[in-house]
């Protein structure tokens, strides 16, 4: 049972490691859904000895990327490899929301030798079953998805259907809104081998400080809650041990 924690700063990275994360998804600007982190952050993450997958997304917004943006994505894949990190997180869409198979195949080839995750670009596709088969054909080991909903809990029935269709050919990794309070509901609904969470909490700060008044704190910024990571990991471990006894 692999717990992947997404983080966007050094404090969050350290909290995730201390809390027992099995794998890190390394991002910047999680408040905007996550974009590619800096090369310096990648190098820092490599020092912890955990598998680290880097978000390859050149900007916030949709997942329809230009050729120039695709070139940037390739360079960011190179940076992740140069930092010694284990994987990348990819996604790309066409104008109608369907997967951009041509670009994804191009990026997949460029990332050869690295672990790969297809990210939540799949949650905006018009046909998730078709996208699942495309992801398998492209050779992705896993899909990070909320089942096309705002949260994994809301998309639980779709996640269960995708898991059944996948039939072990690809990992369906639930993500979005996964907290210790709701994870057991997901675990009880369908087989899960990997799960994704941010375990985020709003950090305390002085709204009257000059930093805050000048807008440098960042709207919607959150931090990683080490206690929530530890609690989530404990639930997953207990579930796994319970399943092993059956």
From TrEMBL:
Main subcellular location of this protein, as a coarse class: cytoplasm
Entry keyword Ribosomal protein: no
Keyword terms of this UniProt record: Cytoplasm
Keyword Cytoplasm (UniProt): yes
Cell location: Cytoplasm
Cellular component GO terms held in the UniProt record: cytoplasm
One of the record's GO molecular function terms: copper ion binding
Record-linked InterPro entries: CutC-like, CutC-like_dom_sf
Highest taxon above the source species: Bacteria
HAMAP family: CutC (MF_00795)
Stated family: Belongs to the CutC family.
UniProt xrefs under PANTHER family: COPPER HOMEOSTASIS PROTEIN CUTC, COPPER HOMEOSTASIS PROTEIN CUTC HOMOLOG
Name this protein carries in UniProt: PF03932 family protein CutC
Organism expressing this protein natively: Rhizobium oryzihabitans
């Amino acid at each position: 049972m692999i717990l992947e924690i997404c983080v966007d700063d050094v404090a969050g990275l350290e909290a995730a490691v201390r809390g027992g994360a099995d794998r890190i998804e390394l991002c910047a600007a999680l408040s905007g859904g996550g974009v590619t982190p800096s090369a310096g952050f990648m190098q820092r993450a490599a020092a912890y000895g955990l598998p680290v997958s880097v978000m390859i997304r050149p900007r916030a917004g949709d997942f329809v990327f230009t050729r120039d943006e695709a070139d940037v994505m390739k360079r960011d894949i190179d940076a992740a490899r140069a930092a010694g990190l284990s994987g990348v997180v990819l996604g790309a869409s066409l104008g109608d929301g369907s997967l951009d198979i041509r670009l994804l195949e191009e990026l997949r080839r460029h990332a050869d030798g690295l672990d790969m995750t297809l990210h939540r670009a799949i949650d905006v596709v018009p046909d998730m079953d078709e996208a699942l088969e495309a992801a398998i054909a492209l050779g992705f080991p896993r899909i990070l998805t909320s089942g096309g909903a705002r949260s994994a809990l809301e998309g639980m029935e779709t996640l269960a259907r995708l898991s059944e269709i996948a039939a072990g050919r690809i990992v369906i990794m639930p993500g979005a809104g996964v907290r210790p309070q709701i994870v057991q509901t997901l675990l009880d609904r369908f087989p899960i081998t990997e799960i994704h969470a941010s375990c985020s909490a709003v950090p305390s700060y002085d709204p009257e400080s000059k930093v805050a008044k000048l807008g440098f704190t960042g709207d919607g910024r959150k931090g990683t809650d080490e206690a929530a990571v530890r609690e989530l990991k404990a639930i997953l471990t207990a579930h796994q041990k319970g399943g092993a006894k059956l």
